[in-house]
Amino acid sequence: MLETLLAFVSKFPQFSDEEVKLIVENLVVEEYKKGTILLKEGEVSTQCYFILKGCIRQYFQMEDDEKTTAFFTEEQAVVSFASYSAQIPANHYFACVEDCTVIVGDFEKEKEMYQKFPQLQALTRTMMEQDFGRTQENFATFITSSPEERYRHLLEKRPELLHRVPLHQIASYLGITPESLSRIRKRLAAKG
User: Fold this and answer.
1) Is the pLDDT of residue 25 over 90?
2) Residues 63-96: tens digit of each pLDDT
3) Which residues contact 40 (CB under 8 A, 6 or more apart)?
4) Rounded to two decimals, what is the model's pTM?
5) Which residues of 15-46 are buried (b: 16+ CB within 10 A; e: fewer)?
């Protein structure tokens, strides 16, 4: 896993080789098994995650049903922004869809890392801004698309999810029933 960390941090030219090694030495890396709940509704988020390997799902519990709103995979940050930054209870869950290896951050560790490596704060901000932009675009696309268009968009942008995530969770993410997803998949397969 050390090689993966070094390779990822080395992608950013603002860090010297020595800084890359120091940053990697200061990171906390954890492994979680598939099914692990990282955050529950009602808990205050005290940690954020950056996925090195695996898939984490965000979902809301609605009576007897789970509504999936996001999947996070390699090189994506996972944080409950409102809960983490304002220290208020989360209104959703984070769960590992696969076995996951993640960098784990918390408030104190972040402050310490930013003091040691000031350019890390600028990098984090840039990554958050890019993520926010993607989230806005995805939300706009979702709202203005039919279920079939949402599925096609998923096939185009994140096809690997279909092999990593149970189809009932994909259906929930697309805002449709598993039966509707099955019909869409059959219809598209018939078209070739």
Assistant:
1) no
2) 889 999 999 999 898 999 999 989 999 999 999 9
3) 90, 93
4) 0.89
5) beeebbeebbeeeeeeebeeeeebbeeeeebe
Q: Which of 1-10, 32-41, 83-92, 115-124 has the lowest mean pLDDT?
A: 1-10
How many angstroms separate the CA atoms of 126 and 120, rounded? 10
Burial class (CB in 10 A: 0-12, 13-18, 19+), 131: middle
Burial class (CB in 10 A: 0-12, 13-18, 19+), 173: buried
Whole-angstrom CA distances from 28 to 52, 60, 110 are 12, 28, 11
Rg (CA), the chain: 18
Read off the pLDDT of each residue in 161-166 and give the average, rounded to a whole number.
96
- Phi-psi region for residue 151, left (φ > 0), alpha (ψ -120 to 50) or beta? alpha
Type of residue numbered 7:
A
Residues paired with 60 in a beta bridge: 67
Using CA atoms, how far apart are residues 116 and 23, in angstroms rounded to an integer? 9
Q: What angle do CA 128, 161, 187 make, to 5 degrees?
A: 125
Q: Which residues contact 81 (CB under 8 A, 6 or more apart)?
A: none
Report yes or no: 90 and 39 within 8 Å, Cβ to Cβ: yes
Residue 55, φ and ψ in degrees, nearest 5: -140, 130
Comparing 69 with 131, the larger pLDDT belongs to: 69
| Tokens standing for residue 161 | 């999810």
